[in-house]
Amino acid sequence: LFGDEEVLPVRSHPIQTAADFRFIYRGYDLEVTRAPSGWRVGVYPRTADLPILRRSEVYACDSDGAIVEAKGRVDGALRL
After folding, report:
1. Staple 63 to which of 2, 35, 39, 68, CB 3.0 to 4.6 Å?
2. Contact by Cβ (8 Å): 55, 73
3. Domain count, the chain
4. For residues 47 and 31, what is the distance between their CA atoms, to the nearest angstrom?
5. Rounded Cα distance, 43 and 60, in Å
6. Residue 3 falls inside a structural domain
7. Where are the alpha helices (DSSP H) in the chain?
């Protein structure tokens, strides 16, 4: 407390760091980062004509598994 005012934290969750590495797969950015339980891959379309994935994040114990799963989701979205 400062005088009569209560100080609240600005951020209650950890700040997300930049991607550990990123690459392009079939028009999508795949951003690979460390996650508390392993690895996370964010999947984001680079152009407006590509479908947005319903679930744009993939989690796995190892980075290779997360990347394979993310590529599978991109392939599935483009198959439609």
Report:
1. 39
2. yes
3. 1
4. 16
5. 14
6. no
7. 63-79
